[in-house]
Amino acid sequence: VVENLHAEYNLGRCYENGIGVEQDYDEAVKWYDKAMKHGNFKAREALERLGKVPPSTIHVKIQKGGTWEIL
User: Whole-model pTM?
Assistant: First the structure.
């Protein structure tokens, strides 16, 4: 699953920027949305940048050892 959310995010980037494919914002949003739903925070940021979701109100607690949890 982790590989999928990274692949979904990368497909979104490709479509947003026209990397190897014709630039298509609707297709970028589709892939970013899938990645966000699988937990990719960068995809959430991309959707915020494109104005497709409101700014994040997610609060994250960083714990010792680099682990984190959503509050």
Answer: 0.73
Long-range CB contacts for residues 27-32, cutoff 8 Å, separation at least 24:
32/8
CA distances from 44 to 18, 22, 29 (A): 19, 22, 10
The span from the CA of 23 to the CA of 4, in Å, is: 21
Strands (E), the chain: 60-62, 68-70
> CA-to-CA distance for 63 and 45, rounded, in angstroms?
22
Closest CA to 40 of 58, 54, 23: 58
pLDDT tens for each residue of 47-68: 988 988 766 655 555 666 655 5
Residue 4, H or E segment: helix 2-17
Which residues, in sequence order, are bridge partners of residue 69?
A: 61
